[in-house]
Specification:
This protein is mostly helical. The chain is built from nine helices and no strands.
């Protein structure tokens, strides 16, 4: 798996990981498959009640959530909806940037309503659909991607934290966000298995 810990540890930006590790588009494909497979491995043996089980999460806080949902703990379906939407957004940005499109400031993001992911089959379907979509975005990269083209219109705070976001950095940013939720997934799965019988 591509090592994204240097970003999480504040040691490198995503563009530095791409450049310093001499990554390729095939590495991005492999990292996508590895991440989706990892999440499938966590949830595939859960039953439907476990998918919607609301875990205890003392740190639950999402200021961007709808009113009344800012401090709810995320069940497995919620987590699947959230991480897949962010990874797809990163992949979409990567396609736009790689093709030299400039001035794209609107976020190409859509999140499946999390309450709709209420069965194991739906969670698996959403992850597999996301895998297909992300890999398809990589197929839209031209043979000679524009690595100089970067996201425009970002805040100073965003730029300071994430660095320059060109095509590969955008893709890695989506993956990095997914990786950052791995422990939350593990905890939710553990609580669901302990609280709801298989």
């Amino acid at each position: 798996m591509v090592d994204l810990s240097p970003f999480a540890n504040g040691e490198k930006k995503y563009i530095d990981i791409w450049n310093d590790d001499n990554l390729t588009i095939d590495d991005l494909r492999d990292a996508t498959n590895e991440s989706v497979d990892f999440l499938l491995g966590l949830i595939s043996d859960l039953n439907d009640e476990q998918i919607v089980f609301e875990p205890v999460d003392e740190e639950a806080k999402d200021p961007y959530a709808e009113d009344g949902e800012q401090e709810i703990a995320w069940n497995i379906g919620h987590l699947v909806a959230h991480v897949t939407s962010s990874s797809e957004e990163g992949a979409a940005f990567s396609s736009i940037l790689a093709r030299g499109v400039e001035g794209m400031e609107t976020r190409p993001r859509y999140e499946t309503p999390w309450r709709e992911i209420d069965t194991t089959a739906k969670a698996i379907q959403r992850l597999e659909e996301s895998r297909r979509m992300r890999l398809a975005y990589l197929d839209t990269w031209p043979d000679e991607p524009d690595y100089d083209n970067a996201r425009a219109g970002v805040s100073e705070r965003f730029a300071e934290y994430f660095g320059v976001i060109n095509a590969p950095a955008a893709f890695l940013m989506g993956l990095g966000h997914e990786h950052s939720h791995y422990e939350q997934f593990k905890d939710a799965v553990e609580q669901a298995k302990a609280s709801v019988s298989a």
